[in-house]
Specification:
This is Dihydroxyacetone (Glycerone) kinase protein. With about 575 residues, the protein is of the alpha/beta class. It has three domains: about 130 residues, Dihydroxyacetone kinase, domain 1 (Rossmann fold, 3-Layer(aba) Sandwich); about 140 residues, Dihydroxyacetone kinase, domain 2 (Hypothetical Protein Tm841, Chain: A,domain 3, 2-Layer Sandwich), CATH 3.30.1180.20; about 220 residues, DhaL domain (Serine Threonine Protein Phosphatase 5, Tetratricopeptide repeat, Alpha Horseshoe), CATH 1.25.40. The chain has 16 helices and 15 strands. The strands form three sheets. Strands 7, 8, 9, 10, 11, 12 and 13 form a seven-stranded mixed beta sheet that branches. Helix 9 runs antiparallel to helix 10, helix 14 packs antiparallel against helix 15 and helix 14 packs parallel to helix 16. It binds adenosine-5'-diphosphate and magnesium ion (MG).
């Protein structure tokens, strides 16, 4: 239960503002989140870490020398948007590239991934490290597919220390993955958490029971069992983690472990210490050495009653970086070396960003892009109800609305960009961002990425040929595949997009428009055929069986928009 707030809607933003006010020596508020209040040295890689709010100290509390360079702050338990991530990176990056670090969740993967697409088109080297330490969420053979929980702390601490010590981007990325691969977490919850302003917790656990393998966004445990004593809980967590201890004497691991006992919100420090007392005994019994253990609150989940244990199996390199000095609002250790850290002098703000110069040819091409997006807007508006109805069969019913909002946002942004003299590339990049921001949802982020990626195939200085157009369409589809990670047969947009792309390659000779129109008919047939498939991905997964007999709404909307594109370009 959250007792203090001004308004539930502004809660996350106001918390960030107060955090910055309390730590002006370390943090600056920037559009989309926070960045260090000091300038990143020229050429130093930036570590931008994030996820939703509601997890303090994760993530904004870990920005400062020796750890993060910036943190986009999403709403409570929801990923920051791609433009928030982008904006924080623009404020944190200074010529050394960026590592985007976040827990492995579908929403974060999409939004950080979309920001990465845009940043790469601008020549910034972006690496993505998804923390995946939660052993309850997947098996040991799929460690990197697990979700991220309190392992965020050691992974970002270690990567940040490597950067502070002079690592370049390749090296920092290597170390971050190495830390992730050495980290395991496991947790239990005794009761659920309540969103600010809500009357009821997201879930309840029966009195005397606990949820084993909880998540940090209000996901209950994977199984319930009776609450034991503190020692029994310590044993449960410790034994399951130790089942994945790597062999000692191999790869530099000899029994040294970083240990983090993490309270999720309402477990008292004394309770944590009682549990840690038992863990210390177990470590000793197993011949393990705890290296600078941490007991306290690190990755919380609002007022969740619960705790988690994290072990990082260390070698010399990881140990050195785990122990290195760090100075952030919520995590401090040792004395930072005395280097000059000049104050930040500028804050980058999208609202003030300038439109790059463009040529007349490119502006003419941008006009066509606006016309296409306005057609998309009309098609989506006309089909909003039908697409929503299809999504409601096994999804959440918002696909029509998402497409309508997204296409309208994109068309409006493109029109505004062209009115300010933007060329084709800038127009598409801005339209892509606007689509994702306006739509929300999975398909919104994927369409945003598609437009952004397509934009990368144009310039602001040259006109575009027919081949350019086909390449741009293909680049958009590639972005959907890369970011969404869906395979053919998963019953998604991909089931229409892949046959479309194959047909386009076959049909294209000299004119893009007619070839796209031909391929769009193939896409429509493929979309209709998705009715035969059971959904396995996205929100529809849970209700997969129910989706049989209904075509996938995202596949259908894709084929409709490609038909509109073909027609528009033929005209
Ligand atoms: P949400 O699923 O977030 O509610 P929408 O309802 O707007 O988003 O979109 C649902 C559509 O998104 C699905 O019909 C499917 O075509 C598409 N989709 C979902 N996940 C993926 C994915 N991983 N790759 C490609 N398309 C996807
Ligand atoms: Mg939906």
């Amino acid at each position: 239960m959250t007792y203090l707030l001004n308004s539930a809607d502004d809660f996350a933003d106001e918390a960030v503002r107060g955090l910055v006010a309390a730590h002006p020596d370390l943090l600056s508020e920037v559009p989309g989140g926070v960045a260090r209040s000091t300038q990143t040295p020229q050429g130093q890689p930036a570590l931008v870490i994030g996820g939703g709010s509601g997890h303090y100290p994760a993530f904004a509390g870990w920005v400062g020398p020796g750890m993060g360079h910036g943190a986009p702050c999403g709403n409570i338990f929801s990923s920051p948007s791609a433009s928030e991530v982008y904006s924080v990176v623009r404020n944190a990056e200074n010529g050394g590239g960026v590592i985007l670090g976040f827990g492995n969740y579908a929403g974060d993967v999409l939004h950080f991934g979309l920001a990465a697409e845009k940043l790469r088109h601008e020549g910034i080297d972006v690496r993505i490290v998804t923390v995946s330490d939660d052993i309850a969420s997947n098996g040991p053979d799929n460690h990197r597919d697990r979700r991220g929980v309190a392992g965020d702390l050691p992974v970002f601490k270690i990567a940040g220390a490597a950067i502070e010590a002079g690592a370049d981007l390749d090296e920092a990325e290597r170390v971050a993955w190495k830390a992730n691969d050495a980290t395991r977490s496991f947790g239990v919850a005794f009761d659920g958490c309540t969103l600010p302003g809500a009357d009821e917790p997201l879930f309840h656990i029966e009195k005397g029971q606990m949820g084993v393998g909880l998540g940090i966004h209000g996901e209950p445990g994977v199984r319930d069992t009776g609450i034991g004593t503190a020692a029994e809980i310590a044993d449960l967590l410790f034994d399951d983690l130790m089942a994945e201890e790597p062999p000692r004497g191999e790869n530099g691991y000899d029994g040294r472990v970083a240990v983090i006992l993490n309270g999720l919100g309402t477990v008292k420090y004394e309770e944590l210490f009682v549990v840690y007392g038992r863990i210390a005994e177990r470590l000793q019994e197993k011949g393990l050495t705890a290296v600078r253990p941490e007991v306290g609150e690190f990755v919380t989940s609002l007022d969740m009653a619960g705790l988690s244990l994290t072990l990082v199996f260390l070698d010399d390199e990881l140990e050195r970086l785990w122990l290195a000095p760090v100075d952030t609002p919520a995590f401090r250790r040792g004395a930072m070396p005395d280097v000059e850290r000049p104050a930040r002098t500028e804050i980058w703000d999208a609202a003030e960003a300038e439109i790059p110069d463009s040529s007349e040819d490119s502006r003419a091409c941008a006009q066509t892009i606006v016309a296409v997006l306005e057609t998309f807007q009309n098609v989506c508006a006309d089909n909003e109800a039908e697409l929503g109805r299809l999504d409601a069969v096994a999804g959440d019913g918002d696909h029509g609305q998402g497409m309508a909002y997204g296409s309208r946002g994109a068309a409006e942004a493109a029109r505004a960009a062209v009115d300010q003299g933007a060329g084709a590339r800038t127009t598409l990049l801005l339209a892509g961002q606007a689509w994702a921001d306006s739509a929300g949802g999975t398909s919104g982020a994927l369409w945003g990425a598609a437009l952004t990626s397509a934009g990368g195939l144009f310039t602001d200085t040259d006109g575009a040929g027919e081949q350019n157009v086909v390449d741009a369409v293909n680049a958009g589809i590639d972005a959907v595949l890369r970011l969404g990670g869906a395979q053919l047969g998963d019953k998604t947009m991909v089931d229409a997009a892949v046959p479309f792309r194959d047909a386009l390659v076959d049909a294209f000779d000299a004119d893009a428009g007619p070839a796209i129109a031909t391929a769009a008919r193939v896409a429509r047939e493929a979309a209709d055929k998705t009715a035969d498939i059971t959904a396995r991905l996205g929100r529809a997964r849970v209700l997969g069986e129910k989706s049989k007999g209904t075509p996938d709404p995202g596949a259908l909307s894709f084929s409709m928009l490609m038909a509109a594109l073909g027609e528009q370009l033929t005209r």
